[in-house]
Specification:
By secondary structure, this protein is an alpha/beta fold. The protein has 9 helices and 6 strands.
Length: about 260
């Protein structure tokens, strides 16, 4: 058991370390766009003997804290993956409370009034109340002059690519373009203009918590040249110092952009 004196000393040391890390960051080495795969909520709950919903609540509460950290260092765009298309197959007794938690989290982010909320995902796969909460958040924050926050709910990278190609085909068909003509001239930019994140910079840095070292379908197209940072901490335990370490790691890398 940690004594109050030892805890106070530990907090002081961490405070000094955080300030040192912050001072070491160069403004011109801050990622413009950070993607974050929030992983480990269920394990966090089970480790504490709590119901899974408690882990999801703790994870949802961490999101605004993370966004403030991003804002403080000058990040322009953040994409937070809250629910994948695969997650939609979870048992109803877990999925339904999770969707309510997501709705509440999005409403709370909207109420802060500091960031522009943009839902990314297949909203047609979501229950009506969840889809409406996401749309309402986007409408309510559309004039906010702040960091852009992509809320990825019902998101899957393969589904996004399928939706982009479908949208492209429908758009070109409406112009009277034949499939043969389209096949002859389509390029990567044509597809990019139909992604959920169209018009945004691709993520410079993708962070995943809980020790898993895979993308799991997150921003498959956009992350082709991203840097990756895998953190052992479960998402509810992800600390400011963990965030600063991720930014420092990114800043120390020599980006070659595939060359």
């Amino acid at each position: 058991m940690r004594t109050p004196g030892k805890q106070k000393l530990r907090d002081a040391v961490y405070g000094l370390y955080e300030r040192r890390l912050t001072r070491s960051l160069s403004p011109d080495r801050i990622p413009r766009h950070i993607g974050v795969i929030i992983d480990g909520n269920r394990r966090w709950a089970r480790q504490g003997g709590d119901p899974v919903s408690r882990g999801h609540e703790a994870g949802a509460n961490k999101i605004s804290e993370f966004l403030y950290w991003c804002d403080e260092v000058g990040v322009k765009v953040v994409t937070v993956w809250m629910l994948s298309t695969d997650n939609l197959t979870r048992p109803a007794d877990e999925l339904e409370p999770l969707l309510r938690i997501i709705e509440q989290a999005v409403e709370e982010l909207t109420a802060i009034g500091r960031w522009r909320i943009h839902p990314v995902g297949a909203l047609d796969l979501l229950p009506g109340s969840t889809a409406e909460a996401l749309k309402a958040a986007e409408t309510a924050t559309q004039d906010v002059n702040g960091m852009l926050v992509n809320v990825a709910v019902g998101y899957g990278g393969r589904r996004e690519l399928a939706d982009a190609v479908r949208s492209l085909l429908l758009e070109e068909a409406a112009k009277g373009i034949s499939i043969e003509e389209l096949a002859d001239r389509v390029d990567v930019e044509h597809i990019a203009r139909h992604l959920y994140t169209k018009g945004q910079p691709d993520p410079d840095l993708v962070i995943r918590t809980s020790g898993e070292q895979r993308l799991g379908g997150f921003l498959l197209w956009q992350s082709a040249l991203s840097e990756f940072y895998f953190c052992e901490a479960l998402w509810p335990d992800f600390r400011h110092v963990d965030f600063l370490r991720a930014i420092r790691s990114y800043a120390q890398r020599e980006r070659r952009f595939g060359t």
